[in-house]
Amino acid sequence: MSVDLAVATPAFLDMTFVGLEALPGPGEERFAGDFVRSPGGGAITAIGAARLGLGTALAAPLGEDVAGGFVADELERAGVAVIAQRCPRTPQTVVMPVDGERAMVTYDPGVRASAADLEALQPEAVAAGLDQLSLVPDRVRVYVTCGDDDARAFAGRLPAALGDARALFVNRREAMVLTAAATPEEAAERLGAAVETVVVTLGARGAIAAMDGSLVEAPGYDVGTPVDSTGAGDLLCAAYAWVDRMPIAPDVKLRWATLYAALSVTVPTGAAGACTRERLLEEGAARALPPLPVGERA
Fold it and tell me: 11 vs 74, 117, 139, 218, CA distance in Å?
């Protein structure tokens, strides 16, 4: 088996309270308009990559439980291959989107992808977390995402293997925790000294990136009222892995990937926010982004 992108990042079952009136405080009860289940974590990256046309596989093991069965079915429906390896329980997250942001509570049994499973997929590229860089086969492009727990764990001590990665994707808060920098720009510059490309997302303001020693800005996009930002960073990673195969300028790659992530926040759940390649191309053309040489590869 050979795939364009193998996703090693752990996959979760996300349980999202849609239309939550406010976050409850201690002893309080709040009400939501709906409650939905969806694939989360690395599964969002995998779904986004598949909808953009990449041959994609999830290398993270899912649980032998109801949650794992649900996530596996949703991934396969989206065209993502799922490895046979299983673990007892699937990681799960309760997501509470409020006022364009979200709070989360997660249970994670800590079972991770193996180097052998990644090797067997013969990937051209791998999406992984900061703690998984040692698993990636040699001479494979690596796209690294970072969660809140990773930012705390690696604050001030980035893994040496990060220097071999193609790109690192972090949000503003994660970047500043990792580097103790005072501003996102300063954080991007510090992280850019450790990895070829680092993208720091700024919410509605878009993103900044340190690329080959220079700071590049991608504007924010007016896509409508934000509903749920969950998974936007995962989809940014998926879109960048897709567009990075094309012979275009780095700043153009950043603008297209940032647009893909921005489009995702207008609906509940990251998986539902992963739009198709056709819609992304339409949205980009409407915003006069430079056309992509779809079908060409770097």
Answer: 12, 15, 25, 28
User: What does the alpha-carbon distance between residue 39 and residue 62 come to, in Å, rounded to a whole number?
Assistant: 11
At residue 7, the 3 state secondary structure works out as strand
233 within 8 A of 201, measured Cβ to Cβ: yes
pLDDT digit string (tens) for 154-211? 999 999 999 999 999 999 999 999 999 999 999 999 999 999 999 999 998 999 999 9
Q: Identify the sign of the CA torsion 78, 126, 230, 226.
A: negative
DSSP 109-142: ------HHHHHHH--SEEEEEGGGGGGSPTT-EE
Convert the pLDDT of each residue in 9-47 to its tens digit. 999 999 999 999 899 999 999 999 999 999 999 999 999
Is residue 200 within a helix (H) or strand (E), and if so which, with residue range?
strand 197-201
